[in-house]
Amino acid sequence: MATSALACHDNIIELVDISFAYKDKKVISDFSFKVKERDFVGVIGSNGAGKTTLLRMMVGLLSPTEGEILLFGQPIRRFRDWDRIGYVPQKNSFNPLFPATVREVVMSGLYNNKLFRRIGKADQSKCNDALEVMRIRDIADKRIGELSGGQQQRVFLARALINKPDLLILDEPTVGIDAQTQEDFFELIFHMHAHHHMTFLMVSHDVEMIEENLGDQPLDRCGAIKFYVKHSHDQECVIPDLQHSIN
Ligand SMILES: Nc1ncnc2c1ncn2[C@@H]1O[C@H](COP(=O)(O)OP(=O)(O)OP(=O)(O)O)[C@@H](O)[C@H]1O
Predict the structure, then answer these.
(1) Nearest CA residue ID for atom 28, ligand 1
(2) Most buried in the list 60, 173, 212, 215, measured by CB within 10 Å?
(3) What integer is the mean pLDDT of 106-111?
(4) Could you tell me the residue range of the domain that residue 166 belongs to?
């Protein structure tokens, strides 16, 4: 588990002089930023500031009009190791007729990009762990399409967490989720950041929560978007499961 200080300063995301425009509408102008291993980056900004656009570029769904993006040191167009990155977009919703159950959707996080994978006992246990953390174990056998928006969002978060990706990118992850589950979720991810070598980038409108956890001064700005960053070196906790942090 020991990670050298040097290794934990490896760049996970590098934005190099990037700009982005939707047709004539320029949204991001000549912006450079680095996310290092074991950073927690909180992204705050008013509606329409360009936060989602930035995230979509970071996961390869949009290409910058100018500049370059590197993931884990590789130019994004050559990057193939998508299992290392979890991304929960802002608004997910399933077609009500989609036939998979909650458990199946969460489990599918384990075989991203793989057509077939044998499901073993360890996988079941990881799944139960993720379901428990997001408080959806009692609805594990329901069809995803028949759940409320808030319940579906918890399923997406459980799906992203099951794999314990090196980098988790979250776009307003707790919209529509009740206060208790929100609190547990933030406690969980800040714990994972402090003790489990994970790197986070999270868009939120909850300035108070961001400042309380990441400090009250942004490290950088891109137009109206502010970036709050906290780095973690703590290596004490080696318990591998997800649940212990909220108990
Ligand atoms: N597909 C699109 N085509 C044209 N303009 C777009 C498109 N998507 C977003 N925009 C515009 O780009 C700007 C940035 O949008 P973006 O969704 O990135 O903002 P945001 O900071 O995530 O906002 P919010 O807090 O409301 O989610 C907005 O003015 C938006 O209207």
Answers:
(1) 48
(2) 173
(3) 86
(4) 7-246
CATH number, domain at 163? 3.40.50.300
ipTM of the complex: 0.97
Residue nearest to atom 7 of ligand 1 (CA): 22
CA distance 14 to 71: 7
Long-range contacts for 188-196 (Cβ within 8 Å, ≥24 apart)? 188/133, 188/242, 188/245, 188/246, 190/40, 191/245, 191/246, 192/242, 192/245, 193/38, 193/40, 193/230, 193/232, 194/232, 194/234, 194/237, 195/232, 195/234, 195/235, 195/236, 195/237, 195/245, 196/164, 196/237
Task: Specify if 111 maps to a domain.
Answer: yes
| 2 lies in some domain | no
pTM for this model (two decimals): 0.84
Q: How many domains, the chain?
A: 1
| Cα–ligand 1 centroid distance for 28 (angstroms) | 11
DSSP 215: -
Which residue's alpha carbon is at the smallest distance from atom 17 of ligand 1? 52
Looking from the CA of residue 49, the nearest atom of ligand 1 is 21
Look at residue 1 and tell me if it is in a domain: no
Pocket of ligand 1 (CB under 6 A): 22, 25, 27, 45, 47-53
Contact 75, 16 (CB under 8 A): no
